[in-house]
Specification:
Arc Repressor Mutant, subunit A, three-stranded antiparallel beta sheet, two-stranded antiparallel sheet, 4 helices, 5 strands, 41% helix, 20% strand, disordered N terminus
């Protein structure tokens, strides 16, 4: 499977994404910008990426994340679903996001 094909993987609506245990999101002290720290490096986030990851808490489903962001940004859920899906799949490929179908308590 090529990288492009794996980016096209469609997440189930009930999947519950969460930041991987090895990763931590925080505000960079020098730049004031959101980043994800992980053993292999640092991922710089834009505001939208940070909003998506804040909702990736293992409680919100993929569908709930899309609906919340669609409401906040007044964007069509159908368009946003594709964008969020691609973003999360790419982070999953880098082992920065994990997916669960069960709610964590």
């Amino acid at each position: 499977m090529s990288a492009e094909q794996s980016d096209n993987y469609i997440l189930a609506q009930n999947v519950r994404p969460r930041l991987a245990a090895k990763a931590r999101m925080q505000i960079d002290q020098l730049t004031g910008e959101p980043v994800v720290l992980y053993p292999e490096g640092v991922l710089l986030l834009n505001a939208t990426g940070a909003e998506i990851l804040r909702l990736c808490d293992g409680q919100h489903t993929f569908l709930a994340i899309v609906r919340e962001l669609a409401h906040r940004y007044n964007v069509s859920p159908e368009v946003l679903q594709r964008e969020v899906n691609t973003y999360l799949v790419r982070l999953h490929k880098r082992s920065l996001v994990e997916f669960s179908s069960e709610e964590k308590t």
